Structures are given as C-alpha cells and as structure tokens.
Please model this.
Amino acid sequence: MLVLKDEYDVIHNFMLLDAHTHLKINKLEGLVPSEFVRKFSSIVKDVAIDIKKNEKDYRFRFPWDLTDRPTDYYDYCQKDAYSIVHPGEDLRGVLDKYMGFDFIITFSANLTSSLPRDYRSANSKIREALIEKSPDDNAPHNNFRFIGFGRLDPNHSDALDAFDNAFQLGLRGLKLHPKEENFEIVGERMEEILTKAAHYNIPVIFHTQEGMAERVKEVVDNTIKSLVDTDKIQMVPRLKVILGHAPWNGVGNNGLYKILSHPNIFGEISTLRPESFAEFFSNSKSQIKYEGILESNNIFEQDWEKVEESYFRYYGYNNFNYWSSKLLFGSDTPYPPSHSVPQLIKHLFSKEFVGNATDIKNILGISALRLIPPIAKSNIQEEKEQASTSLKHHPTQLTQLKKDSKALGMDPLIDVFPCARISGAVFSFLKEGRTESWLFRSLFSPNKPMNMVIPNPHDLSDSSILTATSTLTQCIEMSLQED
Model:
C-alpha cells in the first residue's frame, strides 16, 4: 500500500498488486513468500523516499516520515492483513510498518521435465507454500497477500484433469506458456480450456511475445462463438484472458492496442522498458477504446444493449478509464523484467504519466483484482441471527475470529466510481464445519461508519450474482441498506 496526498491535500490510497511472479518450489527458480515481502517492501519505501526528495517531479507527495523498521513477515501477511482496507486511526504507523505490495499473484516456474509436462504436483506445492504457520501456536493459516495460480501443459493427456485439480486446490487463476510447452494457441484443446476457465470464472494468463497476441485473440473469439452458439452468452463476460508481457508484442504495434480493446482481453505489462514508458501509455490511452466492446467478433450479433450492460456491470468499465482498466502491473520476478519495477512505479506517479489517479490505481492493482474470483461464502442459514449492525470493529476482532476458526481467505471489494479503490473486504472463516464471511468496511469509505462489521449475507461466488445487473459492491451496499 502506498498512501499519498495530492496538491489539494486529498489522501489517495494506492493499492499495489503484482500480477506476474514466480514462487520458488524445490529447485525451480523463484522467490519464497518472505523474500517477496522483503523485496517489495524495500521497493515501495525507495519509491516513497524518491517522491519525498523530488516532489517537483511528481503529481503526488509523501508527507509522512519513514523509519528503517524491518517488515515482520508473519505480521505483514497474517496478523494485520485487514490493514489493507482498514488501517485504523494510526494511519502513519500503519504506513510505516506495512508498506509493500498488498497482493502478489504467483505461480511456479517452468518444469525441467520433458514434454508434455504434468504440473499437478507443482500446483499442489504452490498451494502448500502459501499456507503459513503462526509463530505463536504453529497453527496453519492461508496467506492473504498471495494469490496462487496453477499451471498446465495443454499437450498433456490429463491437462483438463490438471485444471480441475488446480481449481479444487483453491488456486484462483491459470498460467499457460505456449513457447515453453510448445503447444498450439489456436485449436479445440485451447477452446476447451478457456471454456472451463469461463465456467470456473478464473483468469488465464498466456506468456506472449512477437505475434502471439493475434493468435490469443483468435482463440478467444472462437471460444466466444462457441459459447454463443450453445446458448451460453451469460458465460461470455467470465472469459478473462491476460496477455503476459504484452509490451513484447510491440510497443509501436497498433494491432496490440486494438486487441487490448477486446472486452475479454487484458495486458500484463512486465518487459516494458523505461525508454518505452511514455510511448506505451500514450498509445494505450489513445488506442484502447471502449468501443472495442461493440466491435468484437461473435458478440456484435447479439442484443447490443444487453451485451454492453453485461460487460459494464461485470467489470465496472467506463469510457474515461477503460484503457487503464485493461492494463495490469506485473514484474516477472525474479527474472530480468523485474529490474525496472521501481522506475515504472515512479513513472506512474510522475508528471509525465498521461493518466489520472484512477488510471494509476487501475494499473497498479484494481484492474487485476477485478479478474480474481471471490471465495467468500454466505451465512444464509444464520442470516437472521447474525446479520446485525450492532457488531463493532476493534483491533482484535480479526485476530479473535482467526483464533476461533480457520481462516480461508479474503476478498477485497472494489469501487470504480468516482475513483477506483478498495472499499472493504470480506474475510472468510471455517468455524464448526461451516463457512462464515464477515464484511469489513474501509477507513476510506466516507459513507459508512469506520468501525462497522457485519456478516455478509450473500454468496459472492454464486454465478447469479456474478452475472446479475448489480456489481459485487452494489450487492453488498444493498444488503447494508436492507439491514
């Protein structure tokens, strides 16, 4: 999290998410979770220091003092994870102690075995690596900061089974590497995988480089046609495909920006070099068009009003910031593209960046969070007894919940208007054999009491909500009003 003030002394909460990293398992390349936390905390502090020293070069300022206090890994990932959305009254203390990346999407590096490859064991180890032990009682807890993705080789005979296995493990996305696994991007097998991804509502990130973006768009359009032809148009917005290393497809390639205008395709921007920052973002702003929704193959034959509203509601798109909502910050840590991370973050906050505060927030994390499926479950049976507005938040509330139950995960809630931000989070727990989800409102919500905590009465993973006419946040807001 990086909190800055603009020239009018308005506080902006910039949530940070890295959408492309590799977690170390066994001898595969990558970093372990604690190394990620230390590295990213150092990067964010360096950015803050540079902004503080060279305010004339930036559109925002960092007015708080920083200390050299080292980041406590367990504390950062577990004990005070709710500080992402609810820093409490001691804002300066939280900023000093918890500066770093709020979320990290991670998956394994490429296996060294011969082709085709079976990633099921590697996926299981990714899941295991993201379960932490409390230093107090050695109890296992899910790591809220890390979002695990699975991998698979489409050429493997059990590829679809590996996909099911990754989903059952609780991994929340899929990474595919056409070059490393030497598979055809366009074909029936890939359409099967993308259809399953739409069914599970999870994003798929492709490694891409020269020429691959066009083939990814082709298979996306073919999959959409198949869904439409089989009367499954409600699943079309759930198809979420990310071009990994999108700038490798050509910063000056006009076709790349047309592809990124496609409502189902997003661009992760690792490999973007410092000398290309200005050109890439300028081209993105001028060429990634909201009208791309209306130009996409196999969608235009449908009811336009219905299709546009479906995409708008699902992703929270708007004309003004559509271009930045299609871009995802990523580093490719620990590989060389990650070396330019500090320069890229500083460029986004500098006076040279072509976008506004919402565009920065989209790129640095909100765009990626839109794509991650929620895991929170409802308390429908206990709704009448538990949905009470009399419950108040206090500093030990989350800690106590975690002591009394098993922490399953956290789902940030996103507002996109008037400014992109995290407005709260739903924490999920397994208690006495049932799932309970509790809604924590954010300090940065001007319309709700700072300390309000109520159970979430909605099943956020249910498809009827995901395809309804209201956004996830609107569903929560309606439930608050009803109570």
